[in-house]
Amino acid sequence: xxxxxxxxxxxxxxxxxxxxxxxxxxxxxxxxxxxxxxxxxxxxxxxxxxxxxxxxxxxxxxxxxxxxxxxxxxxxxxxxxxxxxxxxxxxxxxxxxxxxxxxxxxxxxxxxxxxxxxxxxxxxxxxxxxxxxxxxxxxxxxxxxxxxxxxxxxxxxxxxxxxxxxxxxxxxxxxxxxxxxxxxxxxxxxxxxxxxxxxxxxxxxxxxxxxxxxxxxxxxxxxxxxxxxxxxxxxxxxxxxxx
Amino acid sequence: xxxxxxxxxxxxxxxxxxxxxxxxxxxxxxxxxxxxxxxxxxxxxxxxxxxxxxxxxxxxxxxxxxxxxxxxxxxxxxxxxxxxxxxxxxxxxxxxxxxxxxxxxxxxxxxxxxxxxxxxxxxxxxxxxxxxxxxxxxxxxxxxxxxxxxxxxxxxxxxxxxxxxxxxxxxxxxxxxxxxxxxxxxxxxxxxxxxxxxxxxxxxxxxxxxxxxxxxxxxxxxxxxxxxxxxxxxxxxxxxxxxxxxxxxxxxxxxxxxxxxxxxxxxxxxxxxxxxxxxxxxxxxxxxxxxxxxxxxxxxxxxxxxxxxxxxxxxxxxxxxxxxxxxxxxxxxxxxxxxxxxxxxxxxxxxxxxxxxxxxxxxxxxxxxxxxxxxxxxxxxxxxxxxxxxxxxxxxxxxxxxxxxxxxxxxxxxxxxxxxxxxxxxxxxxxxxxxxxxxxxxxxxxxxxxxxxxxxxxxxxxxxxxxxxxxxxxxxxxxxxxxxxxxxx
Lengths: 243, 489
Known about the structure:
The complex is a heterodimer.
Chain A: E1 3-9, H1 16-24, E2 31-38, H2 44-54, E3 58-63, H3 69-79, E4 84-87, E5 93-94, H4 98-108, E6 113-121, E7 130-132, E8 137-139, E9 141-142, E10 162-164, H5 165-170, H6 179-182, H7 185-195, E11 200-211, H8 217-220, H9 223-242
Parallel strand pairs in A: 1-2, 1-4, 2-3, 6-11
Antiparallel strand pairs in A: 4-10, 5-11, 6-9, 6-10, 7-8
Chain B: E1 5-11, H1 16-27, E2 34-41, H2 45-54, E3 60-65, H3 70-80, E4 85-88, E5 93-95, H4 99-109, E6 115-122, E7 128-129, H5 136-139, E8 150-152, H6 167-181, E9 190-200, H7 215-228, E10 236-239, H8 244-253, E11 257-259, E12 271-275, H9 283-287, E13 296-300, H10 303-311, H11 315-325, E14 329-333, H12 336-345, E15 349-351, E16 370-374, H13 379-388, E17 394-396, E18 408-412, H14 420-427, E19 431-434, H15 450-464, H16 471-476, H17 482-488
Parallel strand pairs in B: 1-2, 1-4, 2-3, 6-9, 10-11, 10-12, 12-13, 13-14, 14-15, 16-17, 16-18, 18-19
Antiparallel strand pairs in B: 4-8, 5-9, 6-7
Helix pairs in contact in B: 1-2, 10-12, 13-15
């Protein structure tokens, strides 16, 4: 069964090779890796041309100007030839058997959208230790749980997510609004999909290592902007229902 | 079966416990087309029976000559040898089973090779002599090739029976001389195969080349060989334990001798230039060099040494050494940063980069390959950088690697001073990305956040690969020898 990885990349040539290699090294071999170069100013294309020569499963969509991560993801999803689309951000690393695990879960359930556990890593690949819970247990693991839009944080690591092609067509990432800049692209899609009745499920196995870097949007956004964007999304959805 | 390799074994007072093992080791070699010629240096009936008992079915010849020394015996053996390759073995050596087959294979594969040598072990595995890479320049200073290694018949110079000792040095110098006549390329005629080809008995304390030899005796023996081969005595010796390539380069540049340790044997040097001095293990033994009387001593500190002073040595050690050498030794270092660090540690050093010859910038190679020379502390960053650059191969380099095959050099060490590797890169016209804050060094600060450090290093490697190097860099980093010569005078 063919699947597609979609990797949007904007000025991320340092980490992109780690991501692409991890996708190509999956135990499930029937796949394509679509890299959407979102108008990068660095030498991303140089690397991608080389990667394409090395492995024909790499497909490159070179957007000449920067359109934002939501639009880039939608363009990549539209080009995907696989039955399932796997999200992988440009600085994250999929575990080698991620596709295998997720495909098994898709076969066992009627889910449209599957996510899983993940480990946070630093730029050199060491685990990032968080202190969580009331007793401040040290852990680097992200434990997946059922999704709830009222939670203050997102319980889904986007790079563990896989969805069906139909899901991607039905619930595109919202290109209007500030979601790309704030790194709320995944959350906005989840709100719309969940209200639209999509079936979410998750696995307990580790599917990816996500890199925590200072330059990433989720580290730099302001809380006020996030709250505003969230309110705007809820308001627009209410309008739709009213209409 | 035609004979390829003739193994000639002079036999004089063989040790009963080793001689039979020697013969059996020869019999059990992987190589089949060889012949054994035992030359009894004076009558020795026990040896004959030992040979007969141990050689098995292999063909062999025993010659008997009146006692005349190993050289006479070897010459007599040569007269009977049929092979086009000759190996003058010893009756107290035990050969590795595969060594001779490897020799013959190498000679067949590479016609430019005149002789092959390796290191050897002492029986009991306590010590070993590793020998060193082939270089005609260093052979003219001191011998490092055992007599027991194979040579082509065409290069055989004969063994000089008039010499008291150092006949093996004389032999290899003779081989080198003959190779000039026969148009062998001097830098390819010898081939060094790292490893140990045979084991031998540990020499007696009072043997000729052992310690029983006095200062004058040693020097007169050295002179005898030097006179014969028209080798001049040099006043200056460059020495280095760890920076062989740099020290040898300097020696050639100023026409000096090069030795790993300058004062391990009696010598007549007026000046000793030491490249690099480690305050780590064996420092007392090594520092003995600086106590030599009536010798001018010069020391070039390297970045590694400075890093060691700051990270791995006790203050007591530093204090002892600095008291010993300040005032007695002229100390130099690569740059202002290095001088600052040395002064703070109590060493009186001046800035004078190690001379490395004239700059020779070459155009960048086609393949975009980078070299790296990085301290272990930076290895996590290196692995991230390596994974970020799958399209640009990174290779580790040693002090003797030819950097012109690479586009540039990644160089991260804790001391942050210009090293000889950085200067070699500049002088061949190569890019440098390093944590050294000096001109043309592609400064990436390791005090930055790790992420910025890696991203910057990666983007520099990516973009620099497309640009030619500025020719000024090579000029800037190639100091002439005039200043050093001024100091020595």
